[in-house]
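Mods, move this if it's the wrong board.
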Amino acid sequence: MIECPYFTTAVYDLDEPMTLDYSELDSFVILIGLKGKAKITDNEGNEITLQGGESIVVPASTQTLKVEGTLKFLETYV
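Not the wrong board. Structure tokens:
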């Protein structure tokens, strides 16, 4: 994980389901797929697939994301 006064970035290398909790975060989040593929479901039931070479912007109103699949990705927020 890298943290500076302007943003925070973490690297995840998943091979089992994980829930990311953004309930205390007051920022949008950018997920950048590096390798693999996963289904991402938010707390409202919206689903999207993220794979290597793709990016998604998650709105600040999102509380949680469930990530299922095999994916290496970056998570960045301000």
